[in-house]
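Quick log. Single chain, no ligands specified.
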Amino acid sequence: MDVNRRIIFVFSFSFFCFNAKAQVKQNSFSFHEESYPKILQVISDAYELYLSYDPKIFDGEPTVTVKFTDKTVYEVLDQLLGDKFHYKIIQDYVVIKKSIVPEVEAEAEPSQLTPVAANPVYLPTVYDTIRYEKIIVKYDTQVVIQEKVFYDTVRIEKVQVVYDTVQVSTEIRQPEKPWQFIPYLTPNLWMRRNGNSNTDYRGLGFGLMGRYSLNNLRFHAGVEYNYSVNNVSFTRSETISQQSIDTVSTFFIIEDGVRVPVYVVDTTEVETEVNQKVDRQNSFQSLSFFVGAGYFLEIGKVSIGAELGFLASSIIDGDEVFNFSNGEITGNLDYQSPQLNVSLNLPVIIRQGDFERFEVVPYLRFGLGPDFKPPLKSNDRYVLGVRLGIIL
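-> predicted structure:
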């Protein structure tokens, strides 16, 4: 009887020492995109331990890439399982479970939800049976059955507040159409500079433009008609000379026996200065084709951009009319055609709802060539204007 007890003591002590040695043993591992079950199997074999877990707890988990250097089994399992899983080492068994994460109600916007008080909900105590171990020890004269049951007690006491959802509004923004077509009006001011001479033309145009959007870049092309006019009034001075002849006296002389009258006259010349008002009107009509590109930034309901474009303009009619008090003189100016211009645009696009609806585009244009054909003098020309468009 005494001998048997000694054998059991030695066996138990050896088992305990073996288990303690496995838990302080250090190993190194390196895994690349491996599943949890495969990694755990390699680790348990290295530390001479057994695994106990439900394989379903690893369903849907991603593969793992990790490296351990001179780590104990506790250090390896802490780093590998983290907060997602819970483990216990009971003798030479490693028991793994999925961590229980309390459900948290999604927070709602105050404007969307109205909180309604609810009675606290207390979850009951849950007992999770981890292991049932049955040890049968045989002695010489009797049989002793020793049972050990291990429980892992988890108790959750959490007050849960239930909210009654009154209204939830979700804003879904539709994508902007890549193509836009824009009819527009454009009041403008043409300025022609030739030395010290300045001529300003006030104009009004309308056009149709197409625009294609590619992220923040936008490309455009279109056609534009303009009518511009310059009115000048001035006074012209003119001197008119008139002669008057008056008979002062009369006498007679005898020539060849004939009586001949002789008249004495007085000639008077009168100069008269006449001031005459003259109205001069210069006008022209032009048709322009243009292309360009720009970069845009969206700020709230407004998009602001900068565009660079090129225009080719053809003068389809250019007249110069002088109106006098006694008549009218009309002439045609020989414009250079086509006229090339560079345009710098600063568009501001306004959004209404989900789509862009209106645009206001201040612009400045520079002439690249002469206005008139030789021998007429050429001018430097600039155009200031604004486009007012509706986006279709």
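Residues 7-11, 121-127 have pLDDT under 50 and may be disordered.
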